[in-house]
Amino acid sequence: MGKIEWAMWANEQALASGLILLTGGIVGVAGQFRGWQFAAYGVAAGVFVCLLEYPRGKRSKGTSVARTGQYCFTVCVKAFGPLTRNYYVRAFLHAAICVPGGFMLATVLGCVCLGIASLIYLAAAIRGEHWEPILPRTETQRKPVPPSIKNPPSNPPPRPPPEMRRKRVDDLEGAAYDNPIPVTANEY
Amino acid sequence: RGRHALSWARAPAAALNFNCMLILLPVCRNLLSFLRGSIQFCSRTAARQLDRNLTFHKLVAYMIAFHTAVHIIAHLFNFEFFWDAQLTNDTSSLPYVLSQIGNNDNASFLNPIRNNHTSPTLITFTTIAGLTGVAITLALILIITSSMEVIRRSYFEVFWYTHHLFVIFFMGLVFHGYGRIVRGQTVSSLRTNQPERCFNHSDTWGEDGSDCAVPEFAGNPPGTWKWVLAPMILYVCERLVRFYRSHQKVVITKVVMHPSKTLELQMKRKGFRMEVGQYVFIQCPSVSRLEWHPFTLTSAPEEDYFSAHIRIVGDWTEALYQACGGDRTEPQEAWKLPKVAIDGPFGTASEDVFRYEVVMLVGAGIGVTPFASILKSVWYKHIQKNQEVYTKKIYFYWLCPETQAFEWFADLLQSLEGQMNDKGMSDFLSYNIYLTRWKETEAAHFRVHHEAENDPITGLKQKTLYGKPNWDNEFTNISTKHPGTKVGVFLCGPPQLGKALEKQCLSHSEADTQFIFNKENF
């Protein structure tokens, strides 16, 4: 199990928990259940967790697959700097957020799931993982495209040094060379 | 409000019974392999559907998730309604009266919320139904989040270990109804209190002069076990078969390192029998006790060993390569080779190749491996044993992004080419190799050597072509050359190519020539 990045799984679990908390909250508010205030909290907390967890972090090893349209979320989350980069903070944050959900049946499932996500984030933090934003690669980071593909050659092909280029009248055989591409007369 | 909540909960529960029955079946791969072998005699189409077992497993899983969500939300409303009924304290309200039934004997009650000191949350965590419900929902959520493609492909252990929570899921599911929390009016009570007549007179039930007695309720017996017991037993059998097979001794007889990071393992196991294009799961305990990885067999059934060509792309394959002494140049002692276990072989669509008179084989990159087995088998059948083979013509297309991946397969094609020329059968196999990507420097080399007799890359007489094949032309040519025949099209490659080929098969299957598309998948 050496190469697992727990944060990847914690992220999936936390996003799912956010959605579950949100759904439970909506049900509680719409159905006007007793304790609907907790349900309203569930809606707010659910939305917050979803926004925080939607941008996937960059994997330290391997290719990272970004979620659709996550760039703007990445920018927002990145703006909080060490608060969102550090997984200890996330673990405790999720643990704190999930507690009020436990007071009402509609949100209790979201509460437990978020608690589990918090534990996985704790494991990730202990292993030294941290959140890196997935940013699109800028122009300067890409390997430069070889100019030969874009423009026709601007220099003539390399030739041997001048003393060899001089026609050697004493050795006509040696002066000849094979043209690799068949030469035909211009037909324009 | 909330009158229908219980119905809304029981409907998905019924659907869940059905789906939980189905979900275990597609992952019993030994059972499916056996079924596939038996069904093939009746209908090839039906047998081919069994290749999509994992897709089916996922679809059923999505259904389970959906129905679970509906079930839970409905119960939330349901319990809120029960709680309201208990708390109204209004004797003229039917729900309140119904809620008071059974307060004395605690057996004939209807409302699971027994008094106004408890709450839905407490009931959830103190009843069998509630506890099992929470436990199995948690298990389901954990299974789903760890099965997301990102996790599955990169961190296999997380996926595999967490997926075993399905054991908790099924146990909890079976016991979910044991508390008999869903209540119905007993048969004897229905005689003394008929709901259609009596529901309006709830304030006079049981009093002298009333013809409605106080109704009695009892719990409905649990029914889920009837649905899931058989699949659970089948799955246990499947795991036992896998366990037995994994302990059969497998010997690595030869390890060959091919260029472009391909490792060939030749193995033997007592009683191993295979068909062309089948695959096996290979486990190497010294590398990982948990991981079983599928590889297509590249040997023909006629050979006395079976082999797999393994591309070294990830941690497990790299570790296997090290364990087989791949990085050492001197030959290894046989006893130093690692122990491996094999599960399989399992059948795929490639077995059907010889049932067609004309065959188109398309392999992209490493996807050409099942066809190695087929071509070798063809070689043995026709050339060495001179058997009458139904297949008369093979068109082989290999699409490859880089030149380096050619070598081990090119060797095979070269020897086939030579043998076929010797026997005067050069018409039997027509192969086209397409180089789909190339570097500038390589392109210059090709231009210069364009006129050479043998292809500069593969050394084969049939030249390598560049770019992607024009499938329209290819299909048209084949249908003109072979009118009135069923042409089998076999692909091992990326899904986009599959879609393109499928479209071509459909559009070119007019008149007599029929193109039948078979996709190999893992």
Q: If you had to describe this structure to a student in words, what would you say it looks like?
A:
The complex is a heterodimer of chains A (188) and B (522). With 188 residues, chain A is mainly α. Chain A has helices at 6-30, 36-53, 71-79, 82-85, 87-98, 105-126, 147-150, 162-165, 172-175. Chain A has a domain at 6-127. The model of chain A has no long low-confidence stretch (mean pLDDT 79). Chain B has 522 residues and is an alpha/beta fold. Chain B folds into three domains: 1-241, no CATH class; 248-346, Translation factors (Elongation Factor Tu (Ef-tu), domain 3), CATH 2.40.30; 351-519, 3-Layer(aba) Sandwich (Rossmann fold). Helix content of chain B is 45%, strand content 16%. The longest helix of chain B is centred in the first third of the chain and has 35 residues, at 53-87. Chain B starts with a helix and ends with a strand. The interface between A and B is medium-sized, with 35 and 32 residues. Chain A: This is Cytochrome b-245 light chain. Chain A: Residues 162-171 have a biased composition (Basic and acidic residues). Chain A: The chain crosses the membrane at residues 12-30, 36-54, 91-124. Chain A: It holds the Pfam family Cytochrom_B558a.
- Helical percentage of chain B: 40-55%
Annotation, overall tally of beta strands of chain A: 0
Overall outline of chain A: elongated
Question: What pair of chains forms the biggest interface?
Answer: A-B, 35 and 32 residues
- How many distinct helices of chain A? 9
Helix content of chain A: 40-55%
> If you average the pLDDT of chain A, what whole number results?
79
Low-confidence blocks of residues of chain B? none
Give, in spatial order, the strands making up the sheet with the most strands of chain B.
12-11-10-9-13-14
Our Rg estimate of chain B from Cα atoms comes to 32 Å
The helix-and-strand class of chain B reads alpha/beta
Number of domains of chain B: 3
Large-scale geometry of chain B: elongated
Identify low-pLDDT runs of chain A.
none
Largest sheet of chain A: none
Query: Radius of gyration of chain A, Cα only, in angstroms?
Result: 32 Å
Oligomer: heterodimer
Number of helices of chain B: 19
